[in-house]
Design goal:
Elements (H helix, E strand, L loop, with lengths): L2 E5 L5 H8 L3 E4 L6 H8 L4 E4 L7 H6 L5 E4 L9 H6 L3 E4 L5 H16 L2 H9 L2 H4 L1 H8 L9 E5 L3 H11 L4 E5 L5 H6 L3 E2 L2 H7 L2 E4 L13 H6 L5 E4 L8 H9 L5 E4 L19 E3 L8 H19 L22
Parallel strand pairs: 1-2, 1-3, 3-4, 4-5, 6-7, 6-9, 7-8, 9-10, 10-11, 11-12
Helix pairs in contact: 1-14, 5-9, 6-8
Bound molecules: 1,4-dihydronicotinamide adenine dinucleotide.
Length: 333
Protein backbone atom coordinates (compact mmCIF):
# COMPACT_ATOMS: atom_id res chain seq x y z
CA UNK A 1 0.00 0.00 0.00
CA UNK A 2 1.41 3.37 -0.93
CA UNK A 3 2.16 6.16 1.55
CA UNK A 4 -0.11 9.19 1.78
CA UNK A 5 1.57 12.59 1.81
CA UNK A 6 -0.65 15.62 2.42
CA UNK A 7 0.78 18.72 0.79
CA UNK A 8 0.09 22.36 1.57
CA UNK A 9 2.79 23.37 -0.92
CA UNK A 10 1.36 21.98 -4.15
CA UNK A 11 2.11 18.80 -6.00
CA UNK A 12 4.22 19.61 -9.04
CA UNK A 13 5.84 17.00 -11.25
CA UNK A 14 9.13 17.20 -9.35
CA UNK A 15 7.32 16.48 -6.07
CA UNK A 16 5.42 13.55 -7.60
CA UNK A 17 8.59 12.11 -9.13
CA UNK A 18 10.48 12.24 -5.83
CA UNK A 19 7.61 10.68 -3.87
CA UNK A 20 7.18 7.92 -6.45
CA UNK A 21 10.67 6.69 -5.49
CA UNK A 22 9.26 5.60 -2.13
CA UNK A 23 5.82 4.57 -3.40
CA UNK A 24 4.17 7.66 -1.93
CA UNK A 25 1.37 9.73 -3.37
CA UNK A 26 0.72 13.40 -2.87
CA UNK A 27 -2.76 14.42 -1.73
CA UNK A 28 -3.86 17.99 -2.34
CA UNK A 29 -6.65 18.90 0.03
CA UNK A 30 -7.27 22.19 1.83
CA UNK A 31 -5.14 22.51 4.96
CA UNK A 32 -5.79 26.13 5.88
CA UNK A 33 -7.45 25.51 9.24
CA UNK A 34 -7.00 23.14 12.19
CA UNK A 35 -10.22 21.35 11.14
CA UNK A 36 -8.94 20.95 7.55
CA UNK A 37 -5.72 19.44 8.83
CA UNK A 38 -7.51 17.01 11.13
CA UNK A 39 -9.73 15.93 8.25
CA UNK A 40 -6.97 15.52 5.65
CA UNK A 41 -3.92 14.52 7.64
CA UNK A 42 -5.32 12.15 10.28
CA UNK A 43 -4.19 9.13 8.24
CA UNK A 44 -1.25 10.77 6.43
CA UNK A 45 2.23 9.24 6.63
CA UNK A 46 3.83 12.64 6.12
CA UNK A 47 2.80 16.27 5.59
CA UNK A 48 4.45 19.10 3.70
CA UNK A 49 3.75 22.49 5.22
CA UNK A 50 3.98 26.14 4.18
CA UNK A 51 4.47 29.14 6.49
CA UNK A 52 0.95 29.57 7.86
CA UNK A 53 -1.08 26.33 8.13
CA UNK A 54 -1.83 25.87 11.86
CA UNK A 55 -0.28 22.57 12.95
CA UNK A 56 -1.62 22.94 16.48
CA UNK A 57 -1.43 20.37 19.29
CA UNK A 58 -4.99 19.25 18.51
CA UNK A 59 -4.18 18.77 14.82
CA UNK A 60 -0.91 16.97 15.60
CA UNK A 61 -2.54 14.65 18.14
CA UNK A 62 -5.04 13.64 15.44
CA UNK A 63 -2.22 12.57 13.11
CA UNK A 64 -1.84 8.95 14.15
CA UNK A 65 0.58 7.78 11.44
CA UNK A 66 2.54 10.86 10.46
CA UNK A 67 6.32 10.38 10.62
CA UNK A 68 7.40 13.85 9.58
CA UNK A 69 6.01 17.37 9.36
CA UNK A 70 8.21 18.78 6.64
CA UNK A 71 8.27 22.58 6.57
CA UNK A 72 9.18 24.26 3.31
CA UNK A 73 11.45 26.80 4.98
CA UNK A 74 13.20 27.65 8.20
CA UNK A 75 10.52 29.42 10.32
CA UNK A 76 8.29 26.88 12.08
CA UNK A 77 6.20 29.06 14.40
CA UNK A 78 3.00 27.65 12.82
CA UNK A 79 3.87 24.18 14.14
CA UNK A 80 3.55 23.10 17.78
CA UNK A 81 6.98 21.47 17.89
CA UNK A 82 6.61 20.34 21.49
CA UNK A 83 3.42 18.46 20.62
CA UNK A 84 5.16 16.89 17.61
CA UNK A 85 8.06 15.69 19.77
CA UNK A 86 5.71 14.26 22.40
CA UNK A 87 3.97 12.32 19.63
CA UNK A 88 7.25 11.06 18.20
CA UNK A 89 6.90 13.08 14.98
CA UNK A 90 9.95 14.70 13.39
CA UNK A 91 9.69 18.35 12.30
CA UNK A 92 12.00 18.86 9.33
CA UNK A 93 13.06 22.31 8.10
CA UNK A 94 14.97 23.60 5.09
CA UNK A 95 17.61 25.88 6.51
CA UNK A 96 19.77 26.97 3.61
CA UNK A 97 17.49 27.72 0.66
CA UNK A 98 16.68 31.43 1.10
CA UNK A 99 19.59 32.95 2.98
CA UNK A 100 20.69 35.08 0.03
CA UNK A 101 17.17 36.14 -0.96
CA UNK A 102 15.98 37.23 2.50
CA UNK A 103 19.19 39.09 3.33
CA UNK A 104 19.03 40.81 -0.10
CA UNK A 105 15.39 41.75 0.55
CA UNK A 106 16.26 43.37 3.90
CA UNK A 107 19.05 45.26 2.16
CA UNK A 108 16.59 46.34 -0.55
CA UNK A 109 14.28 47.83 2.12
CA UNK A 110 17.25 49.62 3.67
CA UNK A 111 18.47 51.07 0.37
CA UNK A 112 14.94 52.03 -0.75
CA UNK A 113 14.46 53.97 2.50
CA UNK A 114 17.91 55.54 2.44
CA UNK A 115 17.65 56.68 -1.19
CA UNK A 116 13.92 57.54 -0.75
CA UNK A 117 13.23 55.57 -3.93
CA UNK A 118 9.52 54.99 -3.40
CA UNK A 119 8.30 58.47 -2.35
CA UNK A 120 10.36 60.16 -5.06
CA UNK A 121 9.12 57.66 -7.65
CA UNK A 122 5.53 58.47 -6.62
CA UNK A 123 6.14 62.21 -6.99
CA UNK A 124 7.88 61.91 -10.36
CA UNK A 125 4.93 59.93 -11.72
CA UNK A 126 2.62 62.74 -10.56
CA UNK A 127 4.64 65.27 -12.60
CA UNK A 128 6.32 66.83 -9.56
CA UNK A 129 9.77 66.88 -11.18
CA UNK A 130 8.54 69.54 -13.61
CA UNK A 131 5.97 71.33 -11.44
CA UNK A 132 6.52 70.68 -7.74
CA UNK A 133 10.29 70.46 -7.34
CA UNK A 134 10.07 71.75 -3.80
CA UNK A 135 8.18 68.59 -2.77
CA UNK A 136 10.94 66.42 -4.18
CA UNK A 137 13.50 68.53 -2.35
CA UNK A 138 11.58 68.20 0.91
CA UNK A 139 11.38 64.43 0.59
CA UNK A 140 15.12 64.22 -0.07
CA UNK A 141 15.97 66.11 3.11
CA UNK A 142 17.47 64.88 5.34
CA UNK A 143 19.57 62.16 3.78
CA UNK A 144 22.70 61.21 5.69
CA UNK A 145 25.37 59.28 3.79
CA UNK A 146 24.97 55.60 4.61
CA UNK A 147 28.62 55.11 5.53
CA UNK A 148 28.12 57.51 8.47
CA UNK A 149 25.24 55.47 9.87
CA UNK A 150 24.75 52.57 12.25
CA UNK A 151 22.83 49.44 11.34
CA UNK A 152 21.44 47.30 14.15
CA UNK A 153 20.77 43.61 13.57
CA UNK A 154 18.54 41.49 15.81
CA UNK A 155 19.62 37.86 15.44
CA UNK A 156 22.78 37.23 13.42
CA UNK A 157 22.30 33.58 12.43
CA UNK A 158 22.23 32.35 8.83
CA UNK A 159 20.17 35.22 7.34
CA UNK A 160 21.18 37.93 9.82
CA UNK A 161 24.83 36.93 9.37
CA UNK A 162 24.55 37.20 5.57
CA UNK A 163 22.86 40.60 6.00
CA UNK A 164 25.75 41.77 8.23
CA UNK A 165 28.28 40.67 5.61
CA UNK A 166 26.42 42.48 2.81
CA UNK A 167 25.60 45.71 4.61
CA UNK A 168 29.18 46.09 5.84
CA UNK A 169 30.20 46.63 2.23
CA UNK A 170 28.53 50.07 2.51
CA UNK A 171 30.98 51.11 5.22
CA UNK A 172 28.36 51.31 7.98
CA UNK A 173 28.94 50.46 11.63
CA UNK A 174 27.06 47.24 12.44
CA UNK A 175 25.85 46.41 15.94
CA UNK A 176 24.20 43.11 16.81
CA UNK A 177 21.81 42.03 19.54
CA UNK A 178 21.84 38.24 19.74
CA UNK A 179 21.96 36.77 23.24
CA UNK A 180 22.92 33.35 21.87
CA UNK A 181 26.08 34.43 20.02
CA UNK A 182 29.36 35.23 21.75
CA UNK A 183 31.15 38.54 21.48
CA UNK A 184 33.93 36.76 19.54
CA UNK A 185 31.54 35.31 16.96
CA UNK A 186 29.96 38.71 16.37
CA UNK A 187 33.35 40.40 16.23
CA UNK A 188 34.48 37.90 13.58
CA UNK A 189 31.55 39.13 11.46
CA UNK A 190 32.97 42.65 11.72
CA UNK A 191 30.19 43.79 14.05
CA UNK A 192 29.88 44.75 17.72
CA UNK A 193 27.77 42.85 20.26
CA UNK A 194 25.41 45.16 22.17
CA UNK A 195 22.38 44.77 24.40
CA UNK A 196 18.85 45.46 23.14
CA UNK A 197 18.63 48.93 24.73
CA UNK A 198 21.86 50.11 23.11
CA UNK A 199 20.77 48.75 19.76
CA UNK A 200 17.49 50.67 20.00
CA UNK A 201 19.24 53.91 20.98
CA UNK A 202 22.10 53.88 18.49
CA UNK A 203 20.71 52.36 15.28
CA UNK A 204 19.70 54.35 12.21
CA UNK A 205 18.31 51.14 10.71
CA UNK A 206 17.21 48.04 12.61
CA UNK A 207 16.82 44.78 10.71
CA UNK A 208 15.09 41.87 12.45
CA UNK A 209 16.38 38.35 11.73
CA UNK A 210 15.55 36.37 14.88
CA UNK A 211 12.94 33.60 14.94
CA UNK A 212 9.43 34.16 16.30
CA UNK A 213 9.43 32.55 19.74
CA UNK A 214 7.76 33.23 23.10
CA UNK A 215 10.86 35.28 23.90
CA UNK A 216 10.72 37.45 20.77
CA UNK A 217 6.95 37.94 20.47
CA UNK A 218 6.20 41.69 20.36
CA UNK A 219 9.71 42.67 21.45
CA UNK A 220 8.98 45.85 19.48
CA UNK A 221 6.18 47.83 21.14
CA UNK A 222 5.48 51.47 22.01
CA UNK A 223 8.22 51.54 24.66
CA UNK A 224 10.87 50.28 22.25
CA UNK A 225 9.86 52.68 19.47
CA UNK A 226 10.11 55.58 21.91
CA UNK A 227 13.76 54.66 22.57
CA UNK A 228 14.65 54.64 18.84
CA UNK A 229 15.88 57.64 16.87
CA UNK A 230 13.07 59.62 15.26
CA UNK A 231 14.96 59.26 11.96
CA UNK A 232 15.27 55.47 12.26
CA UNK A 233 13.82 52.82 9.97
CA UNK A 234 12.67 49.37 11.12
CA UNK A 235 13.02 46.43 8.73
CA UNK A 236 11.22 43.16 9.42
CA UNK A 237 11.73 40.17 7.14
CA UNK A 238 11.49 37.68 10.04
CA UNK A 239 7.95 37.26 11.41
CA UNK A 240 5.04 39.68 11.87
CA UNK A 241 4.31 38.97 15.52
CA UNK A 242 7.79 40.05 16.62
CA UNK A 243 6.43 43.59 16.20
CA UNK A 244 3.31 45.06 17.81
CA UNK A 245 1.76 46.40 14.61
CA UNK A 246 -0.63 48.83 16.31
CA UNK A 247 2.33 50.37 18.14
CA UNK A 248 4.25 50.44 14.84
CA UNK A 249 1.36 52.27 13.17
CA UNK A 250 1.29 54.85 15.99
CA UNK A 251 5.07 55.29 15.94
CA UNK A 252 5.11 55.83 12.17
CA UNK A 253 2.11 58.13 12.01
CA UNK A 254 3.24 60.26 14.97
CA UNK A 255 6.85 60.60 13.77
CA UNK A 256 8.31 58.58 16.66
CA UNK A 257 10.29 56.68 14.00
CA UNK A 258 10.69 57.58 10.33
CA UNK A 259 9.94 54.48 8.31
CA UNK A 260 9.49 50.75 8.06
CA UNK A 261 9.98 48.00 5.53
CA UNK A 262 7.97 44.89 6.33
CA UNK A 263 7.75 41.62 4.45
CA UNK A 264 5.82 39.87 7.22
CA UNK A 265 2.64 40.86 9.01
CA UNK A 266 0.39 39.52 11.74
CA UNK A 267 -1.93 38.09 10.50
CA UNK A 268 -0.90 37.09 7.00
CA UNK A 269 -2.23 38.25 4.67
CA UNK A 270 -3.05 41.56 6.36
CA UNK A 271 -6.54 43.04 6.29
CA UNK A 272 -6.62 45.26 3.16
CA UNK A 273 -8.10 48.01 5.37
CA UNK A 274 -5.22 47.79 7.86
CA UNK A 275 -4.27 51.46 8.44
CA UNK A 276 -0.59 50.50 8.39
CA UNK A 277 -0.94 49.85 4.67
CA UNK A 278 -2.18 53.39 4.09
CA UNK A 279 0.95 55.06 5.47
CA UNK A 280 3.36 56.66 3.01
CA UNK A 281 6.41 55.81 5.13
CA UNK A 282 5.86 52.04 5.04
CA UNK A 283 6.94 49.66 2.31
CA UNK A 284 5.17 46.30 2.42
CA UNK A 285 5.89 43.11 0.53
CA UNK A 286 3.95 39.86 0.69
CA UNK A 287 6.12 37.42 2.68
CA UNK A 288 8.00 37.25 -0.57
CA UNK A 289 11.52 37.85 0.74
CA UNK A 290 12.37 34.18 0.32
CA UNK A 291 11.43 34.07 -3.31
CA UNK A 292 13.61 33.40 -6.30
CA UNK A 293 13.34 30.51 -8.72
CA UNK A 294 16.54 29.06 -7.31
CA UNK A 295 15.35 29.35 -3.74
CA UNK A 296 11.92 27.93 -4.51
CA UNK A 297 13.41 24.87 -6.18
CA UNK A 298 15.78 24.33 -3.23
CA UNK A 299 12.89 24.74 -0.77
CA UNK A 300 10.61 22.28 -2.55
CA UNK A 301 13.33 19.69 -3.09
CA UNK A 302 14.49 20.04 0.51
CA UNK A 303 10.93 19.60 1.81
CA UNK A 304 10.13 16.57 -0.30
CA UNK A 305 13.61 15.17 0.35
CA UNK A 306 12.90 15.15 4.10
CA UNK A 307 9.66 13.25 3.45
CA UNK A 308 11.47 10.69 1.28
CA UNK A 309 14.07 10.21 4.04
CA UNK A 310 11.41 9.72 6.70
CA UNK A 311 9.42 7.25 4.61
CA UNK A 312 12.63 5.27 3.99
CA UNK A 313 13.10 5.17 7.78
CA UNK A 314 15.97 7.67 7.79
CA UNK A 315 16.23 10.93 9.76
CA UNK A 316 15.96 14.10 7.66
CA UNK A 317 19.09 16.29 7.63
CA UNK A 318 17.70 19.34 9.47
CA UNK A 319 15.28 18.93 12.33
CA UNK A 320 13.61 21.62 14.42
CA UNK A 321 13.25 18.95 17.13
CA UNK A 322 16.38 16.75 17.10
CA UNK A 323 15.38 15.56 20.59
CA UNK A 324 12.62 13.48 18.91
CA UNK A 325 15.33 10.94 18.05
CA UNK A 326 15.57 10.03 21.73
CA UNK A 327 11.83 9.53 22.33
CA UNK A 328 10.52 6.00 22.91
CA UNK A 329 7.53 6.56 20.63
CA UNK A 330 9.52 8.05 17.71
CA UNK A 331 7.94 7.11 14.41
CA UNK A 332 11.13 7.03 12.33
CA UNK A 333 13.02 3.90 13.40
P1 LIG B 1 18.92 31.13 12.41
O1 LIG B 1 18.43 30.17 13.42
O2 LIG B 1 20.12 30.78 11.59
O3 LIG B 1 19.23 32.55 13.10
C1 LIG B 1 18.40 33.13 14.06
C2 LIG B 1 19.30 33.93 15.03
O4 LIG B 1 18.43 34.58 15.96
C3 LIG B 1 20.25 33.03 15.84
O5 LIG B 1 21.58 33.52 15.76
C4 LIG B 1 19.71 33.14 17.26
O6 LIG B 1 20.72 33.08 18.24
C5 LIG B 1 19.03 34.51 17.24
N1 LIG B 1 18.05 34.68 18.28
C6 LIG B 1 17.26 33.73 18.87
N2 LIG B 1 16.51 34.29 19.83
C7 LIG B 1 16.82 35.61 19.86
C8 LIG B 1 16.39 36.71 20.65
N3 LIG B 1 15.51 36.55 21.65
N4 LIG B 1 16.91 37.92 20.42
C9 LIG B 1 17.83 38.09 19.43
N5 LIG B 1 18.31 37.09 18.65
C10 LIG B 1 17.80 35.86 18.87
O7 LIG B 1 17.67 31.45 11.48
P2 LIG B 1 17.71 32.04 9.99
O8 LIG B 1 17.81 30.92 9.02
O9 LIG B 1 18.68 33.14 9.92
O10 LIG B 1 16.21 32.62 9.88
C11 LIG B 1 15.78 33.69 10.71
C12 LIG B 1 14.30 33.92 10.56
O11 LIG B 1 14.02 34.47 9.27
C13 LIG B 1 13.44 32.63 10.58
O12 LIG B 1 13.15 32.22 11.90
C14 LIG B 1 12.20 33.05 9.83
O13 LIG B 1 11.20 33.49 10.74
C15 LIG B 1 12.66 34.24 8.97
N6 LIG B 1 12.53 33.92 7.54
C16 LIG B 1 11.74 34.73 6.77
C17 LIG B 1 11.58 34.48 5.42
C18 LIG B 1 10.76 35.38 4.54
O14 LIG B 1 10.46 35.02 3.40
N7 LIG B 1 10.41 36.57 5.00
C19 LIG B 1 12.21 33.30 4.79
C20 LIG B 1 13.09 32.56 5.66
C21 LIG B 1 13.21 32.86 7.00
Amino acid sequence: MSFKVVSGIGGGDNIKAELARVDAEVVLEPVWTEEDIIKSAADADAVMVGATEPYTRKAIEAMKKCRVISRTGVGYNNIDVEAATENGIAVAIVTDASIEEVSDHALAFLLAFYRKIIPVDRLVRQGAWQLRRREIFEIRVPTVRLSRQTVGVIGAGRIGGAFVRKVRAFGVKVIVYDPYLTEDTIQTMGAVKVDFEQLLRESDYISIHCPATDETKRIFGAGEFSKMKSTACLINTARGDIVDEKALFNALSEGVIAGAGIDVTDPEPPDPDDPLLQLENVVVTAHSAFYSEDSLLALVMGTVGAVVDALKGEWPRSLANPEVKETANRRIK
